[in-house]
Structure formats: C-alpha cells, structure tokens
Design brief:
This is Dynactin subunit 1. By secondary structure, the chain is an all-alpha fold. It has one helix spanning about 1-119.
Length: about 120
C-alpha cells in the first residue's frame, strides 16, 4: 500500500510538473498574444493615419481639379475676348483704309476745285 501511495504521489507530482509546464507555455502564449494585439492596434492606428492622408490627398486633388477647371474657363473666356479684339482691329484697319481713300478723294476734289477757281 505504501508503494501504491508512493506511486500515486509521484504520479501527482509528475502531473503537477506537466501542468506547471503547460501554465508556463500558456503564460508565454498569452504574452505573445498581448504583443500581437499591441502590434495590431498600432497597425490599425497606422491604417487610420494612412486613410486620413488619402482623404487629404483626395481633397487636394478635388481642389486642384476645381481650380484647373476655373483657369480653363478663364482662358477660354480670354481667348474669346482676344478673338473679338482681333475682329475689332480688322474692322478698325478697314475703316482706316476707307478713311484714307476718302481723304485721297477729298484731296483730289479739293485740288480740282482749286484749279477751277484759279483758272
């Protein structure tokens, strides 16, 4: 009976040692999991920062696009104004030519009248 109790005691000690070893492994696994959780939380925080940066970039792209469209409209308007000014310049040049022709004709008529008056 003593031997049986001794064997039971040794078996219990072995079981306790195995359980202690498993507890140590579980504790190590728990620490590893906590480290993984901390790393994942940091990764999530980094992802939030990245998303915020993407949102900022998207806002900037929208603003740049909006300004580019505004500049394009202004340039189109300025080009239209330049075409109108070119037309005014062409008309002005034509008027100048007509006035020069009228001036030449008037000078000829005046010269003719002077000749008649003096003759």
């Amino acid at each position: 009976m003593y031997i049986s109790k001794q064997e039971n005691l040794q078996g219990a000690e072995k079981t306790i040692a195995n359980n202690m070893s498993e507890l140590d492994q579980l504790s190590l696994s728990r620490n590893n999991l906590q480290n993984v959780i901390v790393k994942l939380k940091q990764d999530i925080s980094d992802m939030h920062e990245t998303v915020d940066c993407f949102i900022s970039v998207d806002d900037l792209v929208f603003e740049i696009t909006d300004r580019s469209l505004y500049v394009e409209r202004m340039l189109t308007s300025a080009l239209g104004n330049l075409k109108v000014l070119e037309e005014y310049l062409d008309v002005s040049n034509e008027l100048e030519e007509v006035l020069q022709d009228i001036n030449k004709e008037s000078s000829k008529d005046l010269a003719t009248l002077e000749l008649r008056v003096y003759n």
